[in-house]
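#lab-general

N.A. 3:47 PM
ok so I finally got the sequence cleaned up, no stray characters, all 254 residues accounted for. can someone with queue access submit it? mine expired

B.Y. 3:52 PM
send it over

N.A. 3:53 PM
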Amino acid sequence: MRALLALAAGLVMAFLLLPLLAVVPVSFAGSEILALPPSSWSTRWYLEFATDPRWITATRNSFIVGAGAVALAVPMGTAAALGLWLRMRPKLLSMFLLPMTVPAVIAALALYFAFAAVGIGSSLGGLVIAHAVLASPFVVVAVLASLRGIDPVLLRAAESLGAAPFLALLRVIVPLAAPGILAGGVFAFAVSFDEVMVVLFIAGPGQFTLPRQMFSGLRDQITPTVFAAATIVLLVCLGLSWLAARAGVAIGRR
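B.Y. 4:20 PM
back already:
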């Protein structure tokens, strides 16, 4: 039975991932004519990606915004998950998951008007905050999954030994929930790294991220450089998925 489930999971994964791999051979095309398979092979588009200032700036901005979003989303999401876990109010979970469920264009419009009102629109800091808002629900879900395997009696036991409530949370519960927090951080970075709709609404001319630069390249002139960038994004996402899977295995073993 377990072998059949593993086979089914592998088939589903192949169905989801194999179409994405089509960008990889196109990124090694030797000419600007897009064809699959390419008529010739070359790494010139990766060289252009690594030397073009626009792509370099976009890649740097993506990592900066992603790191900033993780730095904000992980504490916020972890605190929200701890509050839901302590109070046992699952109905409130739907409120925290709203940024995950509403269409991206609605979230982008709401953030655009909100940030314009306080004067942080078209800024890198505003973009970090927007991505943190979108990524926080993923942190909440991942941390809650980890907290559900922790006995609340441990918290009361720590308090009975003289630990303050906040100190008991920090030294007892948070270390036990570390795999979920790590998985939430990985998901938060992946959401930020892949986000394009909010960037189109909020980012200014100097805040091009990698997905926005790819979108601009597809709109203006399609070249295999876009596919080289897509391959790099795919590799980053696969690496993040592997980290999240490892954290999930750690949660399951507890």
